[in-house]
Amino acid sequence: MIELRHLRTVLALKQTGSLAAAASKCFVTQSALSHQLKELESRIEAKVFVRKSKPLAFTEEGLKLVDLAEDILPKVSATEQQLKAASNDEHAPLRIGIDCHSCYRWLMPVMAQFKQQFPDERLDLLSRYSFDALDALEQGELDLVLTSDPIANHSLHFEHLSEFEVKLVVGKDTALAKCDYVTPTQLAGEAIISYPVPLSRLDLVQYFLAPAGVAPGPQKTCDLTNMLLQRIACGEGVASLPNWSLTEAQGLSLTTVRLGENGLFRPLYAAIRHDTQAKHNPLISRVMQLIANATRTEAVAV
């Protein structure tokens, strides 16, 4: 039977034109190459090339082997690469991005649960894409993004996970704390403390103040939830946060008030690429289920 090593030898002969050069290309000695050719000729019961021909000339049988090698070997190489890539994908981490700073509180326990259920798999939470996570997802740098703001994009799929309420966080000794709910006009000119996100992207502004034509006061930003809550407790302003965020207040004199009589509710979506959905579907599905359960639990915890 003709083996791949035989075809590689024949192809090396065709490409180099001599036994010595072919042996060097195949990383074997010339003696070993000659022995392999004799073995091949014994199997096909025919000569592969004309001895002592310059330049090296193939027999009719040898030319058929060259054609076979040029057809088969590239296909074998391409298949090997595809199989290696598939194997690497199976063991690659599932990369998650998030554009909700306060979600880290419950996302870390979710990752721990996932690890318990899938000890051979890995989740990577990549925080460097906080402000352009969907772009990174589309470009293949992330596999899943948690967002409340789906966009029209044919390459991305948005799976609805849950709803959560956004509340106004205020100091307990402020006038706003005495209200059952606040109206947009009550927040006109009020200083807004937030994560470093453009003011126009804040839920409080985009879905509560702007539709009512109310302009907020100055924006003050900080990166950490604890710091944000401390600044509210110090009377620097107010913030709009998912209701689970107040669990990080740790004894601060804070409370939450509903935004509007019926409250302001926002959706949470898992965004994934269509190709990633097919490739990681079992893991993606389980992660999304864990996140949905966690957000429902957090939404009623406060």
Overall description:
Belongs to the LysR transcriptional regulatory family. GO terms for molecular function: DNA-binding transcription factor activity; transcription cis-regulatory region binding. It holds the Pfam family LysR_substrate. InterPro entries: LysR_HTH_N, LysR_subst-bd, MetR_PBP2, WH-like_DNA-bd_sf, WH_DNA-bd_sf. The strands form 3 sheets. Strands 3, 4, 5, 6, 7, 10, 11 and 12 form an 8-stranded mixed beta sheet that branches. The longest helix is centred in the first third of the chain and has 32 residues, at 60-91. The chain has 2 domains: 4-90, Arc Repressor Mutant, subunit A; 103-123 and 157-302, Periplasmic binding protein-like II (D-Maltodextrin-Binding Protein, domain 2), CATH 3.40.190.10. The N and C termini lie far apart (73 Å). Strand 8, helix 7 (203-209) and strand 9 (219-221) form a beta-alpha-beta unit. With 302 residues, the chain is an alpha/beta fold. The chain has helices spanning 4-16, 19-25, 30-44, 60-91, 104-117, 133-138, 203-209, 225-233, 274-279, 281-299; strands at residues 49-50, 57-58, 94-98, 123-125, 144-147, 156-171, 181-182, 192-194, 219-221, 239-242, 254-259, 264-273. The radius of gyration is 32 Å and the shape is rod-shaped.
In short:
Belongs to the LysR transcriptional regulatory family. The chain has 302 residues and is an alpha/beta fold. The protein has 10 helices and 12 strands.
